[in-house]
Amino acid sequence: MTWSEDQPMVSIKNLHKSFGELEVIKGVSLDVMKGEVICIIGPSGSGKSTIIRCVNALNDIQEGSIMVEGQEVNDPDLDKRELRKKVGMVFQQYNLFPHKTALENIMMAPLLVLKQDKESVEKLARQLVKKVRLEGKEDSYPGELSGGQQQRVAIARSLAMSPDVMLFDEVTAALDPETVNEVLLTIKELAEDGMTCILVTHEMGFAREVADHIYFTDKGVIVEHGSPATFFDDAKDPRTKEFLSQIL
Amino acid sequence: MEAFFEWFKWLYDDTGINLPFMYDSYDRGRMINGFFMTIKLSVLCLIFSIIIGMIGAWLQASPLKWTRRFVGGYIQLFRNTPPLVQLYFFYFAIGTMLPKVASDYGGEQPMLGGFAWAVISLSFFAGAFNVEIFRSGIEAVPNSTIEAAKALGFSRLQIYKDITLPLAFRVVLPALANNLVNLVKTTTLAYAIAVPEMLYEANQIWSDNVNVTEMMIFMLLAYFLLVGVLVWAMNRWERSLKIPGYGA
Ligand SMILES: Nc1ncnc2c1ncn2[C@@H]1O[C@H](COP(=O)(O)OP(=O)(O)OP(=O)(O)O)[C@@H](O)[C@H]1O
Ligand SMILES: [Mg+2]
Fold first, then answer.
1. What is the CATH number of the domain that holds B67?
2. Which residue is closest to A104 within chain B, CA to CA?
3. Is residue B197 part of a domain?
4. Residue range(s) defining the domain that contains residue B224
5. Does a structural domain hold residue B246?
6. pLDDT digits (tens, 9 = 90+) for A157-193
7. Phi and psi of B187, rounded to 5°?
8. Of residues A88, A95, A99, nearest to B243 (C-beta)
9. Confidence check on the interface: ipTM exceeds 0.90, yes or no
10. pTM, whole model, 2 decimals?
């Protein structure tokens, strides 16, 4: 089956995932169309990270299906490296390569994984540095950058692979309040450029602003989902209401 | 220069302190050959033992149980037996089992000589320790950093070569330096299978000149300086690898 753009870019159906005996995802389904931004919110331990880590096969899946551009992720013969070329991911703890400068961090994957030539990769990397507003920090090592700066390098590093979908796992959760906004702004611009994004976030205002669709998870299931307006103003499920009342 | 050499002759005549390798060109030749043999032996063993350490540590992380056991067995065997016994084992047991080859003089000679066996034996000896050292360094590399590389589509080998090893290397450099210093000291064992290294040549000289005391004092100082140079080089290397803002 070939994928076309009128089908979901990421389609999760009845996803189940266990760590040993413990089932942490109990039948999750969601679709993301090209250019869409969806946010997953929910209490700690509800399985948000696990869901998005299944999308790029960092976690394996026990049951169900995840299609990324028509390719089944839950397939023993899956070429994970091919999948990960299409799916970028940004982590809560940035996870930059500490022995490489900001620019080298961005250039590494296109050079090694995509085998692109150095000159064009460097040109692209410098454009990305500009895009995430880090001009002048090209030659700094991660240890010399603030959390917010590191996270923007991490976003640029992921973008350098020209992914079709980006996964963000609470990427501002480890940041100082002052630097949260600079990272959120970068993501917002990305979303406005039409990047397909799956975001896990605790930033409700931000979710409301950028998301096309919001999913609320609790104990491994999706309790409720809808557009930001209906979700925030008109939540039906008591668990959602309670969560929102605590956080807003 | 001649006057310099002559001075040692006077020293001998005046005081009885006999350093023939300073005034006698034949003995000087022996000492210089011995010195360079020790250097050659040390450098080759350093290189091979580091390669063995890196490959061994890589194989120890293999998903195949028998590969891991094989490496584990190798480490146990070489760590828990005396290096001199290992050397004899290679030279006398393995060496005589190998087929003979035609020598330049029309006769037969062993396929590998004493020097080759010394390199092999000492490399495996120091290599066993290096595997353990590298493994401890690899375990110190955070899994989250590895995961970031995976998410970018790096292959297992690329992760090892470009992320894990460079980071592990910095962690283990002090321990590695320690082991390499030991290795250089252990090259004197090659004496036992008549490899003409520094100690062996010193022995030749003192047999001819009956000046054991002087030769042993000289040997002690010579090795002290040689190892001192190595320690200094390793320290410089450690400093040059330091990443701004990373580590202690
Ligand atoms: N590698 C693992 N091994 C065992 N259990 C795990 C593992 N990773 C996650 N879990 C468990 O799975 C459940 C869901 O974890 P997950 O990290 O997906 O939650 P989350 O919604 O992202 O929470 P948070 O908001 O705190 O990041 C938790 O109960 C957690 O303890
Ligand atoms: Mg999480």
1. 1.10.3720.10
2. B162
3. yes
4. 2-241
5. no
6. 999 999 999 999 999 998 988 889 999 999 999 999 9
7. -60, -20
8. A99
9. yes
10. 0.84
